[in-house]
Design brief:
InterPro entries: ARM-like, ARM-type_fold, Armadillo. By secondary structure, the protein is mostly helical. The chain contains 22 helices and no strands. The N terminus is likely disordered.
Length: 486
């Protein structure tokens, strides 16, 4: 078998040489192209699979091109990048494609890539104090710069601490004339201490009261001031400096401080003392709009509600002349008249409300002070703002409540019904004015008996029916107005 292979391999070159010596035949007549010459035939290695390799004519095995040379290293495919140990992806698993080029939000930076992100991340919003570009939008971003690289250390804002009484007194060095100190920098303790030591110094007392009012606008300072006895200190200052035109501003500052202290019931407060102090101040300065405004606000804050304590404060205020002081405040005119009238109307409401046995006496004293005529003029005045007319109608409801026939006849005599008709017609779009106006007319015409019939006839002649019909027609969708008007 081996001999036949060698014989076939040896005969193949001779056949090829013989074929090359035959000239190519051209078919000129048929116009055919010349036939291609026969090429050397190289047997496919697949045909001789499993057979020994064929040898050349000399019987020697073929030589490789790099025979005798050392083997050359083959090119290797670079390995896939792997994440560092302890990173977000871990192991040898390649990380996902970067999302920075797709506009998505990058993952939180690791410790190894922090400086790269600092220099290359976009958008770069500025340079920090260490000289690095930083991307402030990265979640959880934090850069740590050695201290020797920071040219300008970061300044931490100093915490403003409230000075104690001793330090405030030493730093301010306020004398008897109120000289060199700055009360606006004092804390609660220092202000109260200086207020108690002020004595007859009016200027220093006024400064302390003004500072106390500013401090008590916050809940924490107000609670602290009440705990330290601010009520008694302010009341004593008002008592000491009451009287004279030169103390009007001081009294106004004291009433404003009591107003801030009485804004919310707190343990340790003294609302009874505040009520008496502001009423006496309003009586002492009847033309001072600031005193009247702060006094009325303090009154209705202290007398709000129907609890036993609130009723006692109402009786205490009426005993000291609060009804007359509030009515006088309603008659004042000035730049802040609207706010004053609103606060005075609220004070009169809370003084006259209540179904207790003393409630009728409080309402009777308000009528005796001229409250009905004053409220009627407030409702009639077309120049009043709507909120003032609303509060005046509510005050009329409070004064006209009850079944005292004499007081109700006095209200009809004060022409309250015509005033309500004009006020309701002028504020037709206000639901509150229509509702409480109808309620006032209902209170004036309620009851049975000849006296009640006489009151209803007077009210009808004064235009009560027209006022009620106007309210019904203008507020058909308001259940409150419909109920009051019926």
């Amino acid at each position: 078998m081996g001999r036949s292979v060698f014989r076939r391999a040896a005969s193949t070159p001779k056949a090829l040489r013989k074929a090359k010596s035959v000239p190519t035949q051209l078919h000129h007549q048929g116009g055919l192209p010349p036939q291609p010459q026969e090429q050397e035939h190289t047997p496919s290695p697949l045909l001789n699979a499993g057979m020994p390799p064929e040898l050349p004519d000399d019987g020697m095995p073929p030589q490789l091109p790099n025979a005798g040379m050392p083997p050359q290293p083959q090119a290797q495919t670079p390995p896939l990048p792997t994440a560092p140990s302890g990173s977000l992806y871990g192991g040898s698993r390649p990380p996902p494609p970067s999302s920075l080029s797709m506009g998505a939000r990058p993952p939180p930076p690791t410790a190894l890539s922090m400086k790269t992100l600092e220099r290359r991340s976009a958008p770069q919003t500025g340079m920090d104090q260490g000289g690095f570009w930083t991307n402030r939008g990265l979640p959880g971003f934090k850069i740590v710069v050695p201290e020797h690289k920071i040219k300008h250390p970061i300044r931490v804002p100093e915490t403003v601490t409230e000075p104690t009484s001793a330090t405030a007194s030493e730093a301010s060095a306020v004398g008897a004339d109120g000289g060199a100190g700055d009360p606006s920098t004092w804390g609660t303790n220092a202000t109260l201490d200086e207020l108690r030591r002020a004595g007859s110094d009016r200027k220093l007392t006024a400064s302390c009261l003004t500072q106390l009012r500013a401090l008590c606008r916050t809940e924490a300072n107000r609670t602290d001031a009440i705990r330290l006895g601010a009520f008694d200190a302010v009341i004593e200052s008002l008592r000491r400096h009451r009287g004279g035109d030169e103390t009007e501003k001081l009294t106004e500052a004291g009433c404003a401080a009591l107003r801030s202290l009485s804004s919310k019931p707190t343990a340790g407060s003294n609302p009874e003392g505040a009520v008496v102090a502001v009423v006496q101040s309003m009586i002492a300065y009847p033309s001072a709009m600031g005193v009247a405004e702060h006094g009325c606000t303090c009154l209705w804050s202290a007398c709000f509600g129907g609890t036993g304590e609130a009723v006692r404060r109402k009786d205490l205020a009426i005993e000291h002349g609060a009804a007359g002081a509030v009515v006088v405040a309603m008659r004042l005119r000035g730049s802040s008249g609207s706010h004053l009238l609103r606060e005075a109307s609220r004070a009169l409401q809370h003084l006259c409300t209540g179904s207790d046995t003393r409630g009728e006496e409080r309402r009777q004293k308000a009528v005796a002070s001229g409250a009905l005529q004053t409220l009627a003029s407030m409702v009639t005045d077309a120049a009043r703002r709507v909120e003032v007319v609303e509060e005046a109608c509510l005050a009329l409801c409070a004064v006209c409540a009850g079944e005292n026939d004499e007081r109700l006849h006095a209200a009809l005599a004060a022409e309250v019904v015509p005033a309500l008709g004009k006020g309701m017609a002028g504020c037709r779009q206000s639901t509150a004015v229509q509702e409480w106006g109808c309620k006032s007319i209902d209170l004036l015409t309620s009851g049975v008996g000849p006296s009640a019939d006489a009151r209803r006839n007077k009210a009808a002649e004064a235009g009560a029916m027209a006022a009620a019909l106007g309210a019904l027609a203008s507020h058909l969708s308001s259940a409150y107005v419909q109920a009051r008007a019926d």
